[in-house]
Amino acid sequence: MNIRRMNESFDKKFKEHALIESSVETDLANALMGVVNALMHKGETSVKAYEVALQDEIEKFYPDKAWWEVTDCNIFSSLISRQDPKMTVMDIMANLKKDIN
Questions:
Q1: Phi, psi of 24 (to 5 degrees)
Q2: CA distances from 17 to 10, 23, 24, 80 (A)
Q3: What is the rounded CA–CA span in Å between residue 4 and residue 98?
Q4: How far apart, in whole angstroms, are the C-alpha atoms of residue 50 and residue 40?
Q5: What CA–CA distance (Å, rounded) separates 83 from 101?
Q6: pTM of the entire predicted model
Q7: Which residues pair with 96 in a beta bridge?
């Protein structure tokens, strides 16, 4: 096998893996934003309600993991300090742990 074919094969495999990871992360971010939007639409103001809903949604995506095994974000602290659940979703996504699967 020549070097060119090996490089092409490696590039193809790497790009497919990156797309899969990106897709899962995008789906998770969209689901978390959906939860936040639904709670906001209902007029929910309880930090605890947002905390539990976000944690539950993360665990739906990764059923074999607890939410803290997926992200290093302290969801409660982020909700309190940010005062904006959408920013907390961004914190969660920015602090996803590597090699979650």
A1: -65, -45
A2: 11, 10, 11, 36
A3: 30
A4: 9
A5: 31
A6: 0.77
A7: 71
Question: Sign (positive/negative) of CA torsion 49, 25, 34, 64?
Answer: negative
The whole-number pLDDT of residue 21 equals 54
For the chain, what's the residue count? 101
Amino acid at 27: D
Residue 70, token pair as written in the block:
């997926």
Write the secondary structure of the chain as one string of H (helix), E (strand) and C (coil).
Answer: CCHHHHHHHHHHHHHHHHHHHHHHHHHHHHHHHHHHHHHHHCCCCCHHHHHHHHHHHHHHHCCCCCHHHCECCCHHHHHHHHCCHHHHHHHHHHCECCCCC
Residue 9 has pLDDT above 80, yes or no: no
pLDDT at 8 over 90: no
Residue 21 CA to chain centroid, in angstroms?
11
